[in-house]
Design goal:
Number of helices: 3
Order of helices and strands: EHEEEHEHEEE
CATH architecture of the largest domain: 2-Layer Sandwich
Strand order of the largest sheet: 1-4-3-2
Helix content: 10-25%
Largest sheet: 4 strands, mixed
Length: about 130
Amino acid sequence: MTIPLRFEGFSLRVSDVERSLAFYRDQLGFTVEQQHGRMFALLRLGEGTIGLLRGDLARWPVEAREQFHIELSTDDLDGLYAALVEQGVHFTEPPHDAPWERAMATRDPDGYRVEFAQGRRGQNRPA
């Protein structure tokens, strides 16, 4: 017998929970489900969660954090790009077509890569 599993989310070690909240909540639209002072916040977007756990990032250089990325998707990538740019989000990669999907990317305050794709990931090859 197979016992079903759900993927709930993951946690990121961040240098400043409030600064990360300003990015994920205020700019990207995540909702805060829990917050425990400056040490931890649990954010939700749709069915998934991101935990923000304050920690010393000096032991984990930005080059390592750049290798990790958060993947989000939307049905209107270009519209989302325009809205986020208007809110002050700086993009490291504007919307572009790759062989496997149409996507764009930014970085959060601690250097984690945040990617946005057009349509459902893995089912969204450009025409």
